[in-house]
Amino acid sequence: MLDIYSNNLLSGRRAQELINDLTEAGASGLESLKQPVGGNTMRFLRRSLDKRNLWPKNYMAQIRVIHHKSKAEELQWCAFCLPHEYLHVLATLGDLDILHDKAGLDIVSKLHLEACEGKANHRLVALGVWGDGMPSQWDRGETIEAVSINLPGQSGKWSPMRLPVTAFSRRSVGENTWHDVFGVIAWSLQHAAAGLHPSCRHDGTPWLKSDRARLAQSGKVMLARAAVTDIRGDWAFFGEVFAFPRHNTNSGICWKCRATPSQAPILIDVAITYVYHIAQESSYAGASFAYFGCSTYKHGLVC
Does residue 198 lie within any of the structural domains? Predict the structure, then answer.
């Protein structure tokens, strides 16, 4: 029932009424949630559920961003859910055999994971990093940049699961923002690979007061280790984060051939002429010409 409420499938007032009825009927485990239904019901339930939350607390780090008014670079605190702490919770509360499943991996990712396992001499969990931009506001006038992780080795009901790592406004992204964000993420992933809880913060400084739980775990061995097998995102994400060539790069964008933007008009003419002759000789005649021409241009020219 609490799961139904937390997913907004049940109102807070109705959830509180059911909790009270179940407690009076003798159900155990809900005694601390019983209270009269009133104006503060939803706030009480949210706070009670947060206290029972077994996911790790937010890790706060200062990131260089652009101030949306002054356009000057400044440091702002950004919240992270660290990948190695996600791994620790999943390994502690979950099934290690399911966590190490490889059925969902493609052949390249599987070979990469097995090579990492050989170097580490240890069984590893496959982790995927996912970068995505999501529109927000009522008019979709602002974009939120989000980074999450998933378990690409899963092939069953857990395959769609994505765990958020961090998110921030697109208009705050500056020249150094992604560098700082992935500095924190890479630090966490390195500890996930080593299977050890970190003994200090990502920048080498001592733990903050908000990191009391992390201080208690410093240097301890984790129940599972992991390796990154997938990094997913659109080309703009790869260009900004990993310095991949952009679509308008004069030297070309493709790693399989030497096609450049200046050659595009010639390649398009050749492809259109070729597809036109095929369409004239087929039963489709010219009906599907536009579709096949577009498809050839997008997927077949440069490779």
Answer: yes
Tens place of pLDDT for every residue, the chain, 303 residues?
Answer: 667 766 777 777 888 788 888 888 887 777 777 777 877 777 777 777 777 778 888 999 999 999 988 889 999 999 999 999 999 999 999 999 999 999 999 999 999 999 999 999 999 999 999 999 888 878 888 899 999 999 999 988 889 999 999 999 999 999 999 999 999 999 999 999 999 999 999 999 999 999 999 999 999 999 999 999 999 998 888 888 988 887 777 777 776 777 776 766 655 555 555 555 555 555 444 333 333 333 333 333 333
Q: Which two tokens stand for residue 49?
A: 């559920």
Domain that holds residue 16: 2-51
- Using a 10 angstrom Cβ sphere, with 0-12 exposed, 13-18 middle and 19 or more buried, the burial of residue 184 is buried
Q: Are residues 108 and 232 in the same domain?
A: yes
Q: Tell me if 266 is assigned to some domain.
A: yes
Indicate whether 111 and 38 sit together in one domain: no
Using the Cα atoms of residue 27, residue 30, residue 32 and residue 37 in order, give the sign of their dihedral.
negative
Q: How far apart are CA 34 and CA 19, in angstroms?
A: 6
How far apart, in whole angstroms, are the C-alpha atoms of residue 295 and residue 85?
A: 44
R_g of the chain, CA atoms, integer Å: 25
Q: Which residues of 111-121 are buried (b: 16+ CB within 10 A; e: fewer)?
A: ebbeebeeeee
Non-local CB neighbours of 229 within 8 Å, separated by 6+ positions: 105, 109, 110, 112, 113, 126, 127, 128, 152, 153
> What is d(CA 154, CA 190) in angstroms, rounded to the nearest whole number?
22
Q: How many domains would you assign to the chain? A: 3
